[in-house]
Design goal:
A: mainly alpha, 2 domains, B: about 220 residues, alpha/beta, Spore Coat Polysaccharide Biosynthesis Protein SpsA, Chain A, 7 strands, about 40% helix
Chain lengths: ~110, ~220
């Protein structure tokens, strides 16, 4: 039986599929990236609908419930993405700073 | 010793002309780095520009640290042996410049930090924040500067090579102190006069928290 929390998770995943497709249409992400996001969100929907698929994993890693394992997994993913995003922003900031400095010195 | 004055500038149309006129009297080359001002600061400098004033313009606002670095890069690639950084908001008294030149030329210090008399006319929040920063930096890096946030300071070419900062914003002053301590450079403090103007300019409490977080980061990385 599908419970409320599962419905919310499915709706969220479907909207993320839509946004991924929208970004692809606008050429903001390439073919590899859209494929990656599709795998992640469709995979999420499958796991949400059939949680028993992950039960063996949950038992292996000593999680009481599949839901607990998914929450921990989501946290790890968010932390990983935040760290990666931070590093990219830092690199971009440095490049921008160097470029602006180069332009200001070039005119002299 | 060839000493350049570097003035980072951001939206200071009210004060910049006065600052330039007063500093020009000391006959040292002046480099003004307009850090993407959106007011008429840049135009005012162009109007009153003399032979000793060079204007560098950042297309976008990068922050005080980045502007100071641009000015330092320009000065050192144009033959400077040392630079003196001054704020553009007329808070610093140009008469104090001689104290810096004396320490740089006469006493051969590598880095000279201006120190405001924090007991006179400094807002209480700034006083407490500044003292806290000094104690924190001292306990983490074993270098005590009574006013870590004062923007009036001098650096020789040799010292600049060793303390090149990464900060683009208001963290630059604190980072300079920390790197000076780490590089074991010869430094001193000179008392400087400061006139506080009203309005929300300079380091805000939010900036202060950012600097605090950076100090912890530098403790792990520098």
């Amino acid at each position: 039986m599908i419970i409320g929390l599962q419905i919310v998770a499915i709706l969220f995943s479907l909207s993320m599929v839509y946004f991924a497709a929208l970004n692809y249409k606008r050429r903001e992400i390439n073919g590899t990236e859209i494929a990656g996001w599709m795998v992640i969100w469709i995979g999420t929907i499958i796991v949400v609908v059939f949680p028993e698929l992950l039960r063996t994993f949950a038992r292996t890693f000593l999680f009481a419930r599949v839901f607990d394992m998914m929450v921990v997994g989501a946290f790890l993913l968010v932390i990983l993405m935040a760290a990666s995003s931070y590093m990219r922003t830092k690199r971009l900031e440095k490049k921008l700073e160097d470029l602006v400095r180069k332009l200001s010195l070039k005119k002299k | 010793m060839k000493i350049f004055i570097v003035i980072p500038l951001f939206n200071e149309e009210k004060h910049i002309v006065k600052v330039l006129k007063e500093v020009s009297a000391y006959k040292m080359p002046i480099v003004v780095v307009d850090d993407g001002s959106t007011d008429s600061s840049g135009r005012k400098i162009i109007d009153c520009r003399s032979k000793i004033v060079t204007l560098l313009q950042h297309k976008i606002n990068l922050g005080k640290g980045a502007a100071m670095k641009t000015g330092a890069v320009y000065a050192f690639t144009h033959g400077a042996d040392a630079v003196i950084f001054m704020d553009s908001d007329a808070q610093h008294n140009p008469e104090d410049l001689t104290k810096f030149t004396r320490k740089l030329e006469g006493e051969k210090y590598d880095v000279i930090f201006g120190s405001r008399n924090l007991n006179l006319g400094v807002p209480l929040v700034r006083y407490l924040g500044n003292k806290f920063a000094s104690v924190l930096v001292s306990s983490f890096f074993r270098i005590y500067i009574s006013d870590t946030l004062c923007g009036f300071r001098g650096v020789t070419r040799k010292a600049y090579e060793k303390i090149k900062w990464e900060s683009t914003g208001y963290g630059v002053e604190t980072e300079m102190v920390i790197r000076t301590g780490k590089a074991k450079l010869r430094f001193c403090e000179v008392p400087v006069e400061t006139i506080y103007h009203s309005g929300v300019k300079g380091v805000t409490p939010l900036d202060a928290f950012g600097i605090l977080a950076q100090v912890v980061k530098w403790r792990l990385t520098i």
